[in-house]
Amino acid sequence: METITIKDIARALNLSTSTVSRALRNSYEINTETKKLVMEYAEKMNYRPNPIALSLRDSKSKSIGVIIPEIANNFFSQLINGIESIAYNLGYHVVIFQSHESYEREVANTNYLVSRKVDGLLVSLSSLTTNLHHFEELMEKGLPIVFFDRVPNEIETHKVVADNFFGSYEATEHLIKTGRKRIAHITSPIYLSITTERLAGYKKALEDYGIAFDESYVKYCHHGGKLASENEAAMQELLDMAEPPDAIFPASDRLTTGCLAVLQKNNIRIPDDMAIVGFTNIGVAELLNPPLTAVVQPAMEMGQQAVELLIKLIEHPKKTIEYETKSFRTSLMIRESSTGKVHA
Amino acid sequence: METITIKDIARALNLSTSTVSRALRNSYEINTETKKLVMEYAEKMNYRPNPIALSLRDSKSKSIGVIIPEIANNFFSQLINGIESIAYNLGYHVVIFQSHESYEREVANTNYLVSRKVDGLLVSLSSLTTNLHHFEELMEKGLPIVFFDRVPNEIETHKVVADNFFGSYEATEHLIKTGRKRIAHITSPIYLSITTERLAGYKKALEDYGIAFDESYVKYCHHGGKLASENEAAMQELLDMAEPPDAIFPASDRLTTGCLAVLQKNNIRIPDDMAIVGFTNIGVAELLNPPLTAVVQPAMEMGQQAVELLIKLIEHPKKTIEYETKSFRTSLMIRESSTGKVHA
DNA sequence: TCCCCTCCCGGCAACGTTCCCGACAACGAT
DNA sequence: ATCGTTGTCGGGAACGTTGCCGGGAGGGGA
């Protein structure tokens, strides 16, 4: 691993390290020929500045940390693609951590990333996070943070979200218009921003169409791995009701597939006995049985927007900026799970 | 971002930095009381050693780089979960990069990770990589690399793979035993290890059951995004044959969903007109239409094994080790896409 | 001739940490 | 009293880079 340093170049060319450094940065106070000499030699020896030394010097790492609940989820992995494409072009390095829906791991990851001197953080909250102290502290210390998807109300900074109210309204409206009366909503814990927003859209649609809101048709579940049974239990409760729902609207990727599995296991015909519309970016929605109607978020664009805002924050820290919340429209992809056209 | 350093502690306690450093490392040559004093003060002030300074000092970063074709793929994201769980416990930090099936990006990512001084690399080759020079060079310089899934024959190091031959044999055998005669195989470019191994298993099963191998039933496609049309074209060629196949065996996640989409678009009944078995870790296989028979790889375990081997290599570099190739058995999950039982 | 200014370039410190090399006191042994 | 030992600690260098300061050579103007 003998990497060449500025010192090596200086020694080889009989110059000082300062001169070499400035020559490489194309400083005006270095003779043109000297610059050429240095740059050609550096090129020849394949010199690459040591980013660690640079980080130590001016405590900047040209890297940003991303904390998400989990990677194995289409919405988040698409979002990461968006983040990476932009960050890469702007010379930033992306470090990804998963909270696995655990508050403790979220805190641990945050601390780790900060000790690694990331220049900023991109965060989507874990479903078990109620205490935001670890982020508040960092923001007070001046570390730029941009939240996306699951964002905290209590913290003021840039945020990037989908128009959850609209997406949820549109989905619910669609179910109503296709004749459903008893629409259940399975969603995340109530202290998540996406939960309240989607719940609100759901309620508003019911209200606008004169359907009474029934709390017993709403179930709150965690997303996390071990808690998948929670999802199943909630579904079972719904199915066991005196008047079970005739449609279900799960509010996330994980919940959607969970619901589908339970319905399939109980041999419930979709959409005949139960319509379903998922708030999900799952890639194979049209290959499902039946093809799944879905509220799709522009995940890639959301990732791009988030990282752009973050980098703006990093590179212009002085500017006391108006923090903004970018909202992206979702799109409703109507398929058979909610309409029941042909059905192979 | 005023973080406390060893110097601050030294100044506050009227000691030298050396003493503080040794006290914190619990060195035997420091007075017990002094140690206690230092450690308590450090604890109180929430001192955390600066990993960047440490990296600079002994050019180790306690971090490992992962280069994979893409994250938005169940096999790889499960694998990453395995990698992270182990690495985290062993005090290593995981940096993930996607090659997006591009040779250029693979090289760029490799260089970047190396310049960031990762202690080792975990790599699954892009489908367009034929030149391995960038990895060979690093290995000569002493950087530990472990390959997984798509591994190069030409490089000697630890490797972690699925038993692709077996998985492919078993899938093909299953199709034969359920009465299929003309089994097509859609796979990756031939210079990928997984391609040749899976192809070999496929051929062997045909041979063992007395079915002649027909090259025109094998199609080679790239995985990458823009090249999805390639997959579609290959499928169409198969369907347009004089004697089209009665079963299809795609060799990866992406290819499997691609094939399913084409079949659906052409209104081909599965499994009546065409059976399908996918070499895929897709999470919703049983929710597909129809539920998909799949060769599943123990992705998480493979990730764990790979990172364990890598860290062993990193931490015991002197030991001239016998390089080993760990092979994991796949499991065949039989569902309706290949059997055609009930079919809602 | 003297002075000042411009053009180049080198020396040094600093970022945070550890390691090597000493230094000095106290103490027992000779 | 002298010497080596042990127990504690400090000083300095080093990792790679950049910024500040300073300095010499050469040229132009008074």
TrEMBL record, chains A, B:
<keyword id="KW-0804">Transcription</keyword>
<protein>
    <submittedName>
        <fullName>LacI family transcriptional regulator</fullName>
    </submittedName>
</protein>
<dbReference type="Pfam" id="PF13377">
    <property type="entry name" value="Peripla_BP_3"/>
</dbReference>
<dbReference type="InterPro" id="IPR046335">
    <property type="entry name" value="LacI/GalR-like_sensor"/>
</dbReference>
<keyword id="KW-0238">DNA-binding</keyword>
<feature type="domain" description="HTH lacI-type">
    <location>
        <begin position="4"/>
        <end position="58"/>
    </location>
</feature>
<keyword id="KW-0805">Transcription regulation</keyword>
<dbReference type="GO" id="GO:0000976">
    <property type="term" value="F:transcription cis-regulatory region binding"/>
</dbReference>
<dbReference type="GO" id="GO:0003700">
    <property type="term" value="F:DNA-binding transcription factor activity"/>
</dbReference>
<dbReference type="InterPro" id="IPR000843">
    <property type="entry name" value="HTH_LacI"/>
</dbReference>
<dbReference type="InterPro" id="IPR028082">
    <property type="entry name" value="Peripla_BP_I"/>
</dbReference>
<dbReference type="Pfam" id="PF00356">
    <property type="entry name" value="LacI"/>
</dbReference>
<dbReference type="InterPro" id="IPR010982">
    <property type="entry name" value="Lambda_DNA-bd_dom_sf"/>
</dbReference>
